[in-house]
Design goal:
single chain, mainly alpha, Methane Monooxygenase Hydroxylase, Chain G, domain 1
Length: 119
Amino acid sequence: MVTDFHLVLALAGFGVFAAAPTIIVPLLFAPRKPGPVKNALYESGQVPVGSGRISIMMQYYAYILTFIIFDVAVMFLFAWAISYSSIGLNGFFLILAFLGILFIPISYTLVLAGRGDLW
């Protein structure tokens, strides 16, 4: 008799079986000591020219955070909307609590978007 637990174990076994070659093959064929070619600096296959120290602009940081927050919210809201008829009023209050917790990082990103020193 196959249960759900047996299916999970089979999936885990397949994951270990599929991942084993990616661990074993480098152990067999990878060089043990790095040489001068291995220690050389490369940038996209080319020898780098100039300084590697640059300042990264944080101009779009608030937009990235907002996208991630709304992406997670929409994913859960979609699943909630599909199962709304079966979960009832309890599910409605749970999604309100979820949205309330999600408004904390949204308000934080709005504060970040208003800061001029990040731009």
